[in-house]
Write a structure and sequence with these properties.
Oligomer: single chain
Number of helices: 5
Shape: globular
Number of strands: 27
Largest sheet: 16 strands, parallel
Distance between the termini: 90 Å
Structural class: alpha/beta
Length: 466
């Protein structure tokens, strides 16, 4: 009897252990399900906003304002803005002011988008900063316009791992402000972007804490039109490497000098690669910034501009591993004192691994200035493009035929410019000068593509996606 009782006791204990294990397994499954429900993007909440929204449910039929929707959002959520112009308190995207530090997470961002591409304007009315981040990470912004700021128009401060896609911005205010201002921000992607109008620069990358690194600017169209304040330093289309670690990447950028508005001060270069102002890399081990790349990029200006840049188009005077590849630079009748490309560094110790590879320029009376420190291949310069093919499909000279992605030239045609319609509409909305050029198969008149064709010649079919 004792043996039977002992066996029974063992069996009971085994049953209890199995039941406990099953309960633990069930609890683990339930916990995983809860975690999946709270973190999966497929189960994200979508909130709707409108220019007059004042609801609390943030539904499409009862939309709320942008501040309400964003405050309620968690990683994976989506804020969808209905058509219209957003103005005033609670309707701007000044997230850095009312939700500083609020973030998504890696792979599960918070998304703010226009319901219809280009049909939303965030308008600061010259009295407020319309689009602003401060310590915000893992956000995605898509499909709208930001304009008319009293400071920079799009200010990204100490914010990392964000994506801006298909966004136009114009007309900064203040005394030393920019249309796009990237300040101490890292690992951000700016894809299919436009900036134009009033500002000391259209795009500035700046750091005062030795950061601002690994940002990618993919298909960024910028046109400087003037700076009413006339203060704050040189006027530029792009100002890069200003106190940064200098490893940004520009893929298929277009920089245009408009310079048509009366203003004082000191005009600068259309693209200023301030590598000599960059911070030391690798903890100061070699004293040079690293890895700045300008790829598949076009730079030109309007010969009728009332203000002429005083330096040159590409001002890369010293310091660092800069690569200029598949770049086309047009003098545009300005006759710069240092030529279209000013890359004067002569000491390889000051400019390690500075590379010019496949760069074509149209010069004025003065040739480009390229110092001995630069490794130069495929550099072509002449008074015109008559002997050149800027849409070359090979690797013998600069080509603007294909898209660059992650630093690699692909076989995907670059044209028509993906933001053609958006930029044309934004210029009209802002009252800025229209773009030149007539229509041709694959693109319309008055677009980025038509103006490029008017400067470089007809775009061959191999470079156009029909």
């Amino acid at each position: 009897m004792k043996q039977v009782s002992k066996a029974h006791s063992v069996a009971c204990r085994m049953t209890q252990q199995r039941n406990a294990l099953e309960m633990l397994t069930l609890a683990a499954v339930l916990l995983a399900a809860v975690l999946l429900m709270t973190s999966s993007p497929s189960l994200a909440a979508e909130r709707f906003t409108s220019p007059t929204g004042n609801g609390t449910t943030c539904s499409q039929t009862s939309p709320c304002d942008n501040h309400t929707a964003i405050r309620a959002s968690i990683p994976g959520d989506i804020v969808t803005m209905l058509n219209g112009t957003y103005r005033g308190a609670n309707h701007l995207l000044d997230i850095g002011a009312f939700a500083s530090g609020k973030s998504g997470s890696n792979g599960i961002p918070i998304t703010v988008r226009a319901q219809n591409d280009g049909a939303v304007l965030i308008d600061g009315q010259g009295t407020a900063l319309p689009c602003y981040l401060n310590g915000n990470e893992w956000w995605v912004f898509e499909g709208f316009n930001c304009a008319e700021s009293n400071q920079s128009v799009v200010l990204l401060f100490e914010s990392n791992n964000n994506i801006y896609r298909r966004i136009c911005a114009w007309n900064a205010g203040g005394s030393n402000d920019h249309v796009w201002n990237i300040w101490n921000g890292n690992d951000n992607l700016f894809e299919d972007i436009c900036g134009f109008g009033n500002g000391r620069t259209i795009l500035t990358e700046f750091s005062d804490d030795a950061t601002t690194m690994r940002n990618i600017y993919r298909r960024f169209w910028a046109r400087w039109e003037g700076w009413r304040a006339g203060t704050g330093g040189p006027y530029l289309v792009w100002q890069m490497n200003y106190g940064t670690l200098g490893n940004y990447l520009v893929e298929n950028g277009i920089g245009v000098w408009g310079g048509g508005r009366p203003t004082g001060g000191n005009p600068g270069a259309v693209i200023k690669v301030l590598a000599n102002s960059g911070m030391a890399f690798n903890g100061g081990a070699d004293g040079h910034p690293a890895g700045a790349r300008l790829l598949g990029t076009l730079v030109y200006g309007y010969s009728a501009a009332s203000i002429v840049p005083s330096v040159g188009w590409l001002n890369a005077v010293s310091g660092g591993r800069i690569t200029l590849q598949d770049v086309v630079v047009l003098d545009s009748g300005f006759n710069f004192p240092h030529g279209p490309v000013y890359a004067s560094c002569v000491d390889a110790g000051d400019c390690p691994n500075a590379v010019i590879n496949r760069v074509t320029t149209v010069r004025g009376a003065v040739a480009s200035t390229v110092g001995d420190a630069w490794s130069v291949t495929g550099f072509q310069e002449a008074p015109s493009l008559s002997q050149r093919d800027p849409y070359n499909t090979g690797t013998s000279e600069a080509s603007l035929c294909y898209r660059y992605i992650d630093g690699v030239r692909t076989g995907t045609p670059l044209w028509p410019w993906p933001m053609d319609d958006r930029i044309k509409a934004a210029l009209e909305l802002a009252g800025s000068s229209p773009l030149a050029g007539s229509a041709a198969p694959g693109y319309a008149a008055g677009t980025v593509t038509s103006e490029v064709a008017s400067n470089l010649g007809p775009i061959p079919a191999a470079c156009i996606t029909h």
